[in-house]
Design goal:
Elements lengths: L6 H27 L10 H7 L39 H5 L6 H9 L1 H4 L13 H15 L3 H7 L20 E7 L2 E6 L4 E5 L3 E5 L12 E4 L7 E5 L3 H6 E3 L3
């Protein structure tokens, strides 16, 4: 006599099977969507092109910090662990993260999610391929091959900032006079330049690329030549090199 499985049992079995399939599929989707597990080895040459978006804040030169820390030797370094960089957020200092391919991928994916409260003004890169390429490039930077990868990508990697010790006479400020709302700068070439006080910004660069002591340098700031930055080797020079000179 043929035994027939009750319809309710079949429905129950199908429901269990379907549920297991859905859960299993969902798990695969979640794993694939995870920024850490989605990481795959990238192309450092393509990563050099992606790094162009980072160059305004980060240098690949050892010891040259900018808005953010130098990325030279990044792999294997503890987050907030570069001694020469003094602007790390407390959140990053407490994170305990060590930079490797996986943690960099997660950081680039969403810095705010990985370390809530950090100071990184960067929303992240959702595209996994771009992240993988960028991480590969940062690995090459840590190996001292960053410039080579950039060259292969057709890029010329500067040092992040110009070397102001090599400034031309036209950019060297020999004297700096101040009267009313006007600064008058005499350049090394003997030319006098005048700036409305609000259009001349004072900056310092104490790095090896900064100006020589007592020899501030003018750096253009776009517009129509009416704005500029005057870079000193240290803050103490700003008060001593500017002289009040009124007719």
């Amino acid at each position: 006599m043929k035994m027939t499985q009750p319809l309710s049992s079949k429905v129950h079995w199908c429901a269990i099977t379907t549920t297991r399939w859905l859960i299993g599929s969902l798990s695969v989707v979640l794993i694939a969507a995870s920024p850490r597990s989605a990481f795959a080895a990238g192309d450092p040459v393509q990563g050099a092109l992606a790094f162009r978006n980072c160059m305004a804040c980060h240098s690949i030169e050892e010891g040259q910090n900018m808005t953010g820390p130098s990325l030279a030797g990044l792999l294997g370094r503890k987050a907030a662990g570069l001694p020469t960089f003094r602007r790390y957020s407390d959140a990053l200092k407490r994170s305990g993260i060590v930079w490797n391919a996986e943690t960099l991928n997660a950081w680039i994916y969403n810095p705010a999610a990985l370390v809530p409260g950090n100071d990184m003004r960067f929303p992240g890169i959702p595209d996994a391929l771009t992240r993988g390429n960028l991480v590969a490039y940062l690995e090459s930077v840590s190996e001292g091959k960053g410039r080579s990868a950039a060259f292969q990508a057709g890029m010329t990697m500067g040092g992040g900032l110009p070397d102001l010790k090599d400034a031309r006479p036209e950019a060297q400020a020999r004297t700096i006079g101040y009267c009313g709302d006007t600064y008058t700068i005499t350049t090394g070439a003997g030319k006098k330049l005048t700036f409305w006080e609000f259009n001349l910004r004072f900056k310092t660069d104490s790095s090896g690329h900064g100006p020589r002591k007592g020899e501030p340098v003018l750096v253009g700031q776009g517009m129509q030549g009416d704005r500029a930055q005057l870079v000193f080797s240290s803050p103490s020079e700003i008060g001593t090199l500017i002289k009040k000179e009124c007719p």
